[in-house]
């Protein structure tokens, strides 16, 4: 039986490897979208991304190995790392000469897709567990120009070992080098909660650590930084500060 034209027009297109991000909900939550305009949050992430992009594109003596692999993490849960990772990826996708890939690497408690309002069954863990699964099988194109997603995939009790495996190293090399204009943003587990975070961070070119204003203690920040002391390119984002007219503010420190 053939559907009438009116119903066909209403039905969303079904396309393999495609995710329809709920942009209306993101805007309602005050997050960055291509249509959000010059909001304070959008402007803050324009500042944050500029330094990261400059380092990702550096050449010669200033070049950073895998500089286009950027991991976003925090010392503890609830500091806003996923919020910052999504906003950063969305802001980078607005660049005229860059594409963003957002990876949900918080494999124990993935939340990127939930925030974006999309669903997927397979992802990063499937590629690491099954050699027959290719990146192209699990990366999702989206309704946002120049933004793709790599979901976490199923949980695994061997997540730390998988993230430290040669398969992961090869996957990161492929991600870093397949497209020279692509910036890959990883939403990582909190540094003080799991061992996966330190393993993942050790393979990244740049790190952004989100610190919740007036909540995260100096001791927690010091302990988290001690776990990534081998990283040379660490940046701090001071999140949820209300020091400016009662609005949330995102400070940036290198």
From TrEMBL:
Family of the protein in this entry: Belongs to the CpsD/CapB family.
PANTHER family the UniProt entry points to: FERRIC ENTEROBACTIN TRANSPORT PROTEIN FEPE, TYROSINE-PROTEIN KINASE
GO molecular function: protein tyrosine kinase activity
Enzyme class: transferase
Pfam family, one: AAA_31
Keywords per UniProt: ATP-binding, Kinase, Nucleotide-binding, Transferase, Tyrosine-protein kinase
Catalytic reactions of this protein: L-tyrosyl-[protein] + ATP = O-phospho-L-tyrosyl-[protein] + ADP + H(+)
GO cellular component: plasma membrane
Residue ranges occupied by any AAA domain in the UniProt entry: 70-231
EC id: 2.7.10.2
Record's protein name: non-specific protein-tyrosine kinase
UniProt organism field: Pseudoduganella guangdongensis
């Amino acid at each position: 039986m053939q559907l009438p034209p009116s119903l066909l027009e209403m039905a969303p297109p079904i396309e393999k490897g495609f995710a329809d991000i709920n942009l209306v909900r993101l805007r309602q939550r005050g997050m960055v979208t291509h249509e959000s305009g010059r909001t304070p949050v959008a402007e803050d992430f324009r500042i944050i991304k500029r330094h990261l992009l400059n380092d990702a594109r550096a050449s010669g003596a200033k070049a950073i190995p895998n500089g286009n692999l950027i991991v976003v993490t925090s010392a503890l849960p609830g500091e806003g790392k996923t919020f910052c990772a999504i906003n950063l990826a969305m802001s980078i996708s607005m660049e005229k000469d860059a594409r963003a890939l957002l990876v949900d690497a918080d494999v124990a408690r993935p939340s990127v897709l939930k925030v974006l309002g999309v669903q997927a069954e397979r992802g990063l863990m499937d590629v690491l567990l099954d050699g027959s699964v290719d990146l192209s099988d699990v990366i999702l194109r989206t309704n946002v120009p120049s933004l793709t997603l790599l979901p976490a995939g199923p949980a695994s009790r061997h997540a730390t070992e998988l993230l430290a495996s040669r398969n992961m190293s090869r996957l990161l090399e492929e991600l870093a080098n397949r497209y020279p204009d692509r910036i890959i943003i990883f939403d990582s587990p909190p540094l003080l909660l799991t061992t996966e975070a330190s393993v993942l961070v050790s393979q990244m070119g740049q790190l952004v650590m989100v610190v919740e204003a007036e909540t995260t203690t100096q001791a927690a920040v010091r302990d988290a930084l001690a776990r990534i002391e081998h990283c040379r390119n660490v940046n701090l984002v001071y999140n949820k500060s209300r020091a400016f007219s009662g609005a949330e503010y995102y400070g940036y420190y290198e």
